[in-house]
């Protein structure tokens, strides 16, 4: 239960960062390997007030280096409302300075599209955490159910990129509780591998030897190490050093491989089942996984194919996510249903049915004899 509580704490930090993030600064950028090139400035925005113009190259932000998309995300995660920041820019070949002050986000009604989508996304993740607690409460001593709980909790904290102000919100957590956030962060990036591991043992463990597990764990271990290094740079070092090499595309590829590997394992499990009821429940999980994977792909594409990211803009500011977010709920719901309704790995039910069968058989024999 304490482990699940760490995921709830991480979720609270995510929501807190979203609630307190600054107003979008109105600067749109692209990257060329040497900095962030301003491609557009929204009139009346804080970027316009700072004097930024299209064509400016931002090389440092608040004394933090800007080279790649990851640097930009790291700096966004450290933004705080009302704290003026110095932007070192190159304009027409000459060095210049602009002062940008992120303004407090103004409430608006009706809320914008990105706010609505963000609310739906966080509600979906909150549902994952609720389902994780429900599974743990119902199957506290079942190892496979605990693995399913870990998967649900990981989905509850997974993010494609860090929200604006997230690192600042992280550092506001009491120091004694911050180690719990590292566990949740690592689990979120490893969610596809956890799913694959779940499929390998549910309902019956498939690999009987240790070496397949070792080989299968190598890619996710590399991903987790890379991710934690990046988190350390963003949160602990406050992005004042260049971020790690951008392996986002490779991480995405590894995640896709684990998801397809899990689907293949589920199909293999399906062929080994004899009962119609058990097969029906596994079909529910297969269908939920396919729908959830398709929705997750849309969300990832909506973030990484945006041509012009901007400081303080929500990662959900895309119509694709409006379609995808409600569908994300299908997978955790199907997973929790399959775990809670699947009788084969509940020992108590097996024992109870065995006793009932023995008593019924004994009574029948007594009547016949």
Features:
369 residues, alpha+beta, six-stranded antiparallel β-sheet, disordered C terminus
Explain what you see.
The chain is of the alpha+beta class and 369 residues long. The chain is built from 14 helices and six strands. Strands 1, 2, 3, 4, 5 and 6 form a six-stranded antiparallel β-sheet that branches. The protein is elongated and about 75 Å long. The termini are far apart.
Concise account of the structure shown:
The chain has 369 residues and is an alpha+beta fold. It is built from 14 helices and 6 strands.
Q: Count every helix, treating DSSP H or I runs of 4 or more residues as helices.
A: 14
Uncertain segments: 344-351, 363-368
> Which quaternary structure do these chains form?
single chain
Number of strands: 6
Which class of secondary structure composition applies to the elements? alpha+beta
Please state the average pLDDT score: 80
Radius of gyration over all CA atoms, rounded: 24 Å
Biggest pleated-sheet summary: 6 strands, antiparallel
Order of helices and strands: HEEHEEHEEHHHHHHHHHHH
DSSP helix fraction = 55-70%
Amino-to-carboxy terminus distance: 53 Å
- Global morphology: elongated
- Estimate the strand proportion: 5-15%
């Amino acid at each position: 239960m304490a482990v699940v509580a760490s995921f709830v704490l991480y979720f609270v930090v995510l929501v807190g960062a979203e609630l307190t993030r600054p107003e979008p600064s109105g600067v749109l950028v692209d990257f060329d390997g040497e900095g962030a090139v301003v491609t557009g400035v929204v009139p009346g925005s804080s970027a316009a007030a700072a004097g930024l113009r299209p064509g400016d190259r931002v090389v440092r932000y608040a004394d933090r280096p800007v080279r790649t998309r990851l640097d930009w995300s790291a700096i966004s995660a450290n933004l705080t409302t009302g704290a003026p920041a110095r932007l070192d820019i190159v304009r027409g070949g000459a060095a210049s300075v602009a002062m940008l002050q992120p303004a407090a986000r103004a409430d608006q009604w009706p809320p914008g599209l990105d706010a609505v989508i963000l609310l739906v996304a966080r509600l979906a993740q909150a549902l994952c955490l609720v389902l994780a607690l429900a599974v743990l409460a119902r199957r506290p001593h079942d190892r496979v159910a605990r693995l399913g709980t870990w998967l649900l909790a990981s989905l509850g904290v997974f993010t494609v990129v860090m929200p604006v102000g997230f690192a600042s919100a992280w550092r506001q957590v009491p120091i004694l509780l911050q180690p719990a956030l590292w566990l949740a962060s690592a689990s979120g990036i490893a969610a596809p591998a956890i799913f694959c591991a779940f499929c390998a043992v549910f309902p019956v463990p498939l690999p009987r030897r240790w070496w397949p597990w070792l080989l299968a764990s190598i890619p996710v271990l590399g991903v987790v190490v890379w991710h934690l290094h990046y988190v350390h740079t963003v949160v602990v070092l406050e992005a004042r050093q260049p971020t790690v090499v951008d392996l986002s595309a490779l991480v995405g590829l590894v995640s896709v491989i684990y998801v397809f590997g899990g689907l293949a394992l589920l199909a293999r499990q399906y062929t080994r089942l004899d009962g119609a009821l058990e097969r029906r429940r596994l079909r529910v999980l297969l269908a939920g996984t396919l729908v959830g994977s398709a929705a997750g792909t849309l969300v990832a594409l909506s973030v990484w194919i945006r041509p012009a990211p901007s400081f303080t803009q929500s990662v959900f500011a895309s119509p694709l996510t409006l379609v995808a977010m409600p569908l994300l709920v299908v997978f955790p719901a199907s997973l929790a249903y399959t775990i809670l309704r699947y009788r084969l790995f509940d020992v108590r039910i097996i024992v109870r049915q065995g006793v009932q069968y023995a008593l019924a058989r004994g009574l029948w024999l007594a009547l016949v004899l």
